[in-house]
Design a protein that fits this description.
2 copies of one chain form a homodimer. By secondary structure, chain A is mainly alpha-helical. Helix content of chain A is 65%, strand content 3%. Among the domains of chain A are: 152 residues, Methane Monooxygenase Hydroxylase, Chain G, domain 1, CATH 1.20.58; 183 residues, Neurolysin, domain 3 (Orthogonal Bundle), CATH 1.10.1370. In chain A, a hairpin with a 2-residue loop joins strand 2 and strand 3.
Chain lengths: 501, 501
């Protein structure tokens, strides 16, 4: 082995050691949400904190920094995948060295306080209870942006954590498109008569729902030998290697689709993780690109596939057989329309496929403003409510149904929200490309065969890990960077069809 | 805070850090046996290995050694529980420093080879396949004993790992008693007519078994808010703090009692762990005393309580109601006799309450001989088979039903087996004391109330953690050290009654 290859192996060993610790933390978290008995919580928090500290120590060790710098200097002697790993790890390492231990502690204390204040504010249904602590989080995030550094906009430094290389400038253009194009289109839909969906909210037996969800997951190609589904309060996907990727769901007896969308959505996330290269375990090239690309996989399966007519031509018959009382008189077409009902609402997580992006738009504008300093936490509730009135046409009745609905800011996660919309927009652009490249894709889906689609995603996205960033991947797959046009085309065709616009 | 108290807190922090890592390893292991999908195994092993290495690094850090030595020198300034923690940790630390890194690696390689050879030998049903590797393990264990050091007997150095402060000399006397007193008694029983137990092996619905097991656990006082039961191939108890202590069981449709004994046995282990003081988390005083004392808790519940007539006077009615077809015609007395059937057998884990100790006796004699060098692995199968003929009167048909049945030696665990018998003997001695001290204990059990017994165990054993060693605890509870007499009294009374001896 050459000297440089020996060094590379040292780097790999350190990264894998860190991954082993991180995945152990992952299991501690999975267990907490699924099987842990109540009283286990106290020591579990301590165990997670200890392991997080150890993971941090491993990654911020100066020896690793030196190794990464050395390897990066001699990147020409590495193969290009190795060189990319080194480059990406060095970027992460450098980011971590820019924050002092004191700053990290200060931030985690501010977050802890903000989270508790958020919980209390929700109980009191009063934004005032949370204002001071949220302000502190915003200040810390602005300070973090300065410490990390940025070229154009402080928000860039935060976005980079969730969506590497994303820029405020580009997102501003993107969300301007959302505002200009989507608001108008949704208004057109609103003028048409509403679809009926009452049959979705009858009583659906929980065990039968569970079995149906498993069938859908299996049909998508989710590998149950490398994963499993369990129940949890909030659905999530978590992985401990590409060979152990788990999903959770919830089952609501009076809302059948809740379970269905969570299965397909988390299934989409899980297929991505199961498709990552296991020989790159612990390295950037063994990991997902960004939250936006992760979400593109879940949204593509959930919306472009799961909420399509061909998909239910394949699966509706089986579903009807399970629930003849509720669905016996409902045609496939009627069912398809019902699951695509468009209606403005107050809560982001309950929004339909189109209104969802107004919720994100509002958060994007607010976060950007807070980071620039053009908005202040003090009158944020009024700003929030005004935007909901303007974009969604709804009146926010109270803080719980408004500004207090999301946990993100209380966790210090500023810059996270835009990735949700990016996911849908990437999904639309990728899916139209898949339709071009996969022979008879819609026909295959109609026949219950999504394997060609999965193969295409594996080949074009999953297998590369983080070799490309989001923009590079998008160009590689579709020949151009993210373009909101594809989402609008999709929306106009689908919802225009359903509502007769 | 005084300087010495500050040092003590540093020691506590290090021990808790190690405990956090160890309990994360515990969860990785629990998950592996319960819910992990098949393909998860590969990276899981690596994750466990990494965390084990980290735990080892934390504990063998020279700074900790220095801290422990300092604290031990000034133990007079600590309170007596603190001083005991320091003393016990120092003992463990010193043991760990006596083994070089090279030796630890050599041992783990020998064990890995031996385990694989054992698996292969079982497949081939041929002891020869395993001989060489087992010899290597025995040699390593002898070398370990020399490195660790001992006063009287090399076996002492190994016993100490599982049963701190146990001595070969004492065990030799104990097992001489077993041989002399138990062999004769069992012969007497054998001359009497056998009890009937065929109704235990009819078809018992698995779900009903599961529910019945949970009921028994609950009735014992097992706290389901600080634990849970799951299924696994081999039942076990595992804890991640005293506030999260989990048990597993297996359910065999054609062997009802299999599930029942595993529930009560693991429940006994779990009650001990749930009763340990959580303010001593990570410290010796927050841990169990020895495997023998741990087993005393499980065996006390399983045999002295669970296999008693009063216990089934409380629970048989409910059981019968669940399985009227199988048990409708079976009286409580008949059931009680059936579950206490005595019969020589070949496999330790399937042995009855009395023959079990012959199995252990044989392993004790062999281990002692191997450690002294008076026995060799080469002709161990002949020795094994001869002892089974002599003590149990059974002919071993092949290696799988003989010398290849246990995994222990292939894991390098020499000195573990005696703790199983110690558990039962301590249990008998503790239980006769409980009968003296708890008013109407048997009557309470008959009424389904084991709370007074649990309170007594909590007060006399659990709450002390490792403050006393096994011998000290035994003297404290019963006024004398372990005495085989109590087990024989119990055996004569119970089985004499059942078989009419």
């Amino acid at each position: 082995m050459t000297k440089i290859q020996k060094k590379y192996q040292d780097y790999v060993a350190t990264m894998q050691k860190r991954a082993d610790v991180d995945y152990a933390i992952g299991l501690l978290s999975w267990d907490k949400e699924t099987y842990m008995p109540d009283k286990g919580a106290r020591f579990r928090s301590q165990q997670v904190a200890t392991l997080s500290g150890i993971s941090h120590e491993i990654f911020t060790d100066k020896k690793l920094g030196k190794l990464l710098a050395d390897l990066n200097d001699k990147a020409g002697k590495l193969d290009k995948r190795q060189a990319k790993n080194v480059k990406l790890s060095l970027k992460e390492y450098e980011r971590s060295t820019k924050l002092s231990k004191e700053f990290v502690i200060k931030k985690s204390q501010a977050i802890s306080k903000a989270y508790h204040a958020w919980v209390e504010a929700r109980k009191a249904n009063d934004f005032k209870v949370y204002k001071k602590e949220l302000s502190a989080v915003v200040d810390i995030c602005r300070e973090e942006a300065e410490l990390i550094g940025y070229k154009d906009h402080p928000y860039d430094a935060l976005l980079d954590l969730y969506e590497p290389d994303a820029k405020t400038k580009d997102l501003t253009i993107l969300f301007k498109d959302v505002r200009e194009q989507l608001v108008g289109f949704v208004k057109e839909l609103k003028e048409k008569s509403q679809v009926k969906d009452d049959f979705l909210y009858k009583k659906y037996d929980k065990d039968k729902q569970w079995d149906f969800g498993l069938k859908l997951l299996k049909n998508m190609g989710y590998d149950f030998k490398a994963g499993r589904q369990d129940l949890s309060e909030h659905p999530f996907t978590i992985n401990f290697s590409p060979e152990d990727v788990r999903v959770t769901t919830r089952v609501d007896e009076n809302d059948f689709m809740n379970m269905t969308w969570s299965c397909i959505h988390e299934g989409g996330h899980a297929l991505y993780e199961q498709g990552l290269p296991s020989d790159q375990y612990g390295l950037p090239l063994g990991a997902y690109i960004s939250l936006g690309i992760h979400e593109s996989q879940s949204r593509l399966w959930e919306n472009n596939v799961g909420r399509s007519l061909p998909y239910w031509k394949a699966h509706y018959k089986g579903l009807k057989k399970q629930f003849p009382k509720n669905l016996g008189a409902v045609s496939t077409k009627k069912f398809y329309k019902a699951i695509n009902k468009i209606q403005p609402n107050l809560i982001r997580t309950e929004a339909d496929e189109l209104h969802y992006h107004f919720h994100v738009l509002i958060r994007f504008e607010i976060e950007k403003g807070l980071m620039e300093g053009s908005l202040k936490v003090d009158n944020l509730e009024e700003i929030w409510n005004a935007k909901y009135k303007e974009y969604l046409g709804v009146k926010v009745p109270d803080a719980k149904h408004g500004i207090l609905q999301d946990i993100h800011w209380s966790h210090g996660s500023i810059g996270y929200f835009p990735t949700y919309s990016l996911g849908s927009f990437y999904a639309a652009q990728f899916f139209q490309q898949a339709e071009k490249e996969i022979p008879n894709l819609l026909k295959e889906i109609e026949n219950g065969n999504t394997q060609p689609l999965l193969d295409w995603l594996r080949e074009n996205t999953h297998k590369h890990g983080r070799y490309y960033n989001a923009e590079e991947l998008c160009k590689k797959i579709t020949g151009e960077k993210l373009n909101f046009k594809y989402f609008m085309d999709y929306a106009r065709k689908k919802f225009g069809g359903i509502y007769g616009v």
